[in-house]
Each structure stands twice: as structure tokens, then as C-alpha cells.
Amino acid sequence: MAHRNSTLDRRSFIKAGALLGGAAAALQGGVAEAAIPKGKKIKSIGSLPEVMFGKTEHQLPVFGHGGSAMIASDIDKYGLELISETERVKMVRKGYDAGIRFFDTARIYGESEGIMAQALGDVRDNIFLASKVMVQTAAEVRESVETSLKTLKTDYVDSMSIHGPMVERVPFEELMEQHAVLEKMREEGKIRFIGLTGHSRFEKMHQLIDTGKFDTVLIEAGYIRKGYNTNHSHTQLEYQELCIARAHELNMGIVAMKVMGANVFGHNSKNLLPDFDAERRAQLPGAAIRWVLNDERIHILNIGISMPGDIDKNLEIFSGDTALKAEDRMLLADFASKAYEQPLISEQRTV
After folding, report:
1. How distant, in Å, are the alpha carbons of 18, 154, 304 from that of 258?
2. Cα distance between residue 122 and residue 330, in whole Å
3. How many domains does the chain have?
């Protein structure tokens, strides 16, 4: 993991990074600028720190709204009761009103795309909206994207990514054929940037990133060394680092997911380790966020939002002192050492 210079203020770093990002795009012949439709300029508010989001050349707040943690099929994994759809629509809008501008969803996330559409329709051109395509063959890509556009009630998505489960299952050559379809749809104005996501099989991800044909990457990059339903082997950890390093070299927009360890540091922490000190447990989300922010190559942290209070708590963390402290490291190590022994992690396959 690359670490920030402890004497460098984060906002100063962000400002410097924005200048460097612009210079890099210029050196590359303005490819990034040419990819951006005229008139798209996202305006943000509030106290959230911002970054230049790689070759997209968008200046975006570092706190992104993940749409997979608020759906009926997944909410029980966090030990929570599902709030109504109306309340979830208001919750997403609350995030926008508070300054969030990066919203991530996918067709596979059940009702998530529809909720995003209801909450953000009237501010569509002032957000970065990311979704995903999860199909086996290139022949299925167009229909999937068109369905997402219809559900999202929009003419275009800012980023459409090949979803991680397909990276795991589909051969490299087929994935590049899917990319070719996405390229065609970008030419048609239905997609602005092409992305890639994944929380395992990092060797394949690195191969795809290394083509230089992807604009963004959403990658597992939390403290806990696990993905959605597998643990990382030492080899996978090496390739995970190579993925981030190569994406950084290519000036891709890099988004971290599984910041809370996929049911480890967030709402489920009380179920995972009920005897852990409550006061220290409450500090886990902040420590987990600061751990990822400590990697200067990562632009946005995509945090799954389940309850309206999640927005307030995360805003407080992101707007405060984001420097990683020794006590953060000690807390994460203490909790993780015990969490690794629990069935949620210990019984998962290691790949």
C-alpha cells in the first residue's frame, strides 16, 4: 500500500493531484478531454474533500454512495431491517443534498437502480452515475445496458463496468468482446466511460487493466483481506496491489469497495463480535475509512449505505481529520485478529 507523506495536508494533496492529473491528460494528447461530452460539469457542495477522478477529469468528493447495501436481498446480512422504498429514495437524495456526487449501482442490485432513478432524476446531470453489466456473452451486453438505462430513467450512464463476477467466470477474450460492445455504445452516447469491477481474481483484473482500454476500476481495497465471499491468498494480495499500481499508472479513476470489510466493520460488527468493547466498536468505521484514504492512489471510497444515519456518520468521518493514526491501526488489527476466527471469514474459500 502506498502511504501519504504525513506532513502533507490531504486537501493540499488533492489540489496538487488535480493539477498533476490535468497535466497527465494533456501529455496523453487530450484523450480524456475528448471523451467528455460538452456541458457536463458536476458541481459539489459541503465540506467533503475532493479529488480529480483520473482520466474522467471530474472533480468529485471522495465519499461515494454504494447502492448494494440497501436492497431487500442483502439487508439481512448487515443485521438490519429493511426500510421502505420511499425511505430509501429519501435516503439517497439525502446523500446528494449533503454533497455526495458519485453513485454506484448495478442491475444485479435488485431495486437499487430504480431507487437511484427516483431519488436523482432531477439532478441527473450533476452526478456521476455508475452501473454494471453482468452477462456471459457479448451478444447480451446491449440488452443489459439498455435495460439499465430504462430502469435508471436516463439516456446515458457516466460509467458502465463489466461486473466482477463475470471477470471471475468469463475468459479474457470474451470479456474484451464485451468491451467492444461497450465501446460501440459509448460512440452512440449511451456510455461515457468504461469500467471494470472486482473483489477477487485479481490476476485476471490486472490483465484487463493492462490493456489500457478501461477508464475506471472499482476494486476491493479494505483492511480485511477478503472479498464478497472468498478470502485472498498471498498471490491474490500481490495481484491486488499490481492492479491498483497499474491503474494508477494509466490514470484510471480508482474506486475502493468493501471498505468496511464486507460485513465486518460496519453494522454487522456487533453480531460478529458481540463481546467487543462497544465504544471501540463505534470507532471501527472511521479507522477503516482512514486506512483506505491512506493510499494516495485511490480516488473515491464507495461506501454501502443501508440506513439514513449511515450518511451522517460517514460525512462526519470524511469531513474530519482523515490522517491514519497509530490507534486506528491498533484497533483494526485487534478487531480483525478476532474476526478472522469467526465462521463468516474462516469458513470462506481462499482463492
Report:
1. 25, 27, 8
2. 44
3. 1
| Domain-located, residue 3 | no
Residue 77: what pLDDT? 77
User: What's residue 256's pLDDT?
Assistant: 98
* Cα 23 to Cα 57: distance, rounded to the nearest angstrom: 11
Which stretches of the chain drop beneath a pLDDT of 50?
1-36, 38-39
In a domain, 311, yes or no: yes
pLDDT tens-digit readout, 201-215:
999 999 999 999 999
Among the listed residues 326, 328, 311, the one whose alpha carbon sits nearest the alpha carbon of residue 88 = 311
Tens digits of per-residue pLDDT, 86-111?
999 999 999 999 999 999 999 999 99
302-349 pLDDT, tens digit each: 999 999 999 999 999 999 999 999 999 999 999 999 999 999 999 999
Residues of 20-37 as b/e, b for ≥16 C-beta within 10 angstroms?
ebeebbeeeeeebeebbe
User: Residue 105 and residue 118: Cα distance in Å, rounded?
Assistant: 13
C-alpha pair distances (Å), 125 with each of 66, 101, 117, 296: 19, 10, 12, 28
pTM of the predicted structure, to 2 decimals: 0.89
15 found inside a domain:
no
Helix (H) or strand (E) holding 231: strand 230-231
Residue 1 lies in a domain: no
Cβ atoms of residues 194 and 161 within 8 Å: yes
Structural domain harbouring 345: 30-350
Burial (0-12, 13-18, 19+ Cβ within 10 Å), 6: exposed
CATH code assigned at 226: 3.20.20.100
303 strand-pairing partners: 65
Tell me if 120 sits within 8 A of 153, measured CB to CB: no
Q: Give the model's pLDDT for residue 30.
A: 35
Grid cell at residue 224: 480485511
Across 308-344, b (16+ Cβ under 10 Å) vs e yields: eebbeebbebbbeebebeeebeebbeebbeebeeeeb
> According to the model, what pLDDT value does residue 1 have?
42
